[in-house]
Design a protein that fits this description.
This protein has about 325 residues and is of the alpha/beta class. It has a domain of about 230 residues: 4-Layer Sandwich (Metallo-beta-lactamase, Chain A), CATH 3.60.15.10. Helix 8 crosses helix 10.
């Protein structure tokens, strides 16, 4: 096809304007992104295709700007799969930069482990960079997020970080996961393990079959105290048993260092000590505050976990309440 000179000039101008707009948008993102949230955290190669950025184990605050989970990604032969892209637009953008240090393949799929926003509000950055990205989550996670949890987490993260996450917008998962399904993405298979109630009522664990890796979300913690206000000791212990029965070699917890199956067995033991002891002592008519020194003594190997003193009292109270309701 032969263009007349004016038409050629017009088409060329449109192309150049489009390229210029793209460049300006990229520059705007660079200027508004605080990549320092992840600068001091290495990208760790867990298995052949699986990588993780191990976040700090403290709570969201001004210093960490909301970054405190373990975002993971899997590089397939054609694309990238992201699991739990973090707590905000900036954290998600910083994760994208980390991913780009390893591959330039497009991000096509994102998996969210549960409804707590420190793990999934980074969806905003994934969709911003890849508008057609497919985002998966537990069906109850999608329901709860749309019924107020997402907005609550947006406001909580903004408050805890004193505005560092203020530009984050809610990007909901759109595809509901099914228990036991195996999702084939290029040369990688993600097997889904859903829970009725463990850390929350919205939890999914992801098994990377080819790499023998399990990504637990907050069903497992390591070196950091958990929160079980929305969950169940019995259900969470059961989730750990499910993980221990799998053919896996590496475990990426929601918070804390990567390890083998000992991540699951240690966290199961932590939960069982609190729950079983509090249940027994409650049968002897002891109050939660009276149980605390006895349970703390049994938890000696976990006393170095972040926020142990701050969290243990509440965890005992939650265990007592669950045990009463179980009876």
């Amino acid at each position: 096809m032969k263009f007349t000179q004016p038409l050629f000039i017009t088409i060329t101008s449109i192309f150049l304007m489009s390229a210029s707009a793209t460049a300006l948008a990229k520059n705007a993102i660079e200027k508004t992104t605080n990549y320092s949230v992840m600068e001091k955290f290495d990208v760790t190669n867990v298995a052949e295709h699986t990588w993780v950025v191990l976040g700090p184990t403290d709570m969201p605050n001004v210093e960490n700007k909301g970054f405190m989970n373990n975002p993971a990604f899997v590089i397939t032969n054609k694309s990238v799969i992201v699991i739990d892209p973090g707590s905000s637009l900036n954290v998600g953008r910083a994760l994208l930069k980390k991913i780009r240090s390893k591959t330039d393949k497009p991000i096509t799929h994102v998996f969210n482990s549960h409804v707590h926003g420190d793990h999934w509000l980074g969806n905003h950055a994934m969709q911003e960079a890849y508008p057609n990205v497919k985002i998966y989550a537990h069906p109850e996670m999608i329901n709860e997020a749309k019924n107020g949890e997402a907005e609550s987490w947006i406001n909580l993260m903004k408050t805890l970080t004193e505005g560092a996450t203020k530009d984050t917008k809610i990007v909901y998962p759109t595809t509901a996961l099914k228990e036991g399904e195996a999702i084939k993405i290029d040369n990688i298979t993600i097997k889904v393990h859903l829970n009725k109630k463990a850390h929350t009522k919205t939890d999914a664990m992801f098994e990377i079959l080819e790499d023998k890796v399990l990504i637990t979300g907050d069903n497992a913690f390591r070196a950091r105290m958990p929160r079980l206000d929305d969950g169940s000791y019995v259900g969470n212990i059961k989730a750990m048993e499910v993980g221990l029965a799998l053919d896996i070699e590496k475990v990426i917890p929601g918070h804390g260092p990567v390890g083998g199956k000992e991540v699951l067995s240690e966290f199961r033991d932590f939960l069982k000590i609190i729950y079983d002891t509090s249940k027994t002592l409650a049968d002897d008519d002891m109050e939660a505050f009276e149980m605390k020194p006895i349970i703390v003594n049994k938890l000696k190997k976990f006393k170095t976990w972040d926020n142990f003193e701050g969290a243990i009292g509440k965890l005992i109270s939650v265990a007592v309440l669950e045990a009463e309701n179980e009876d």
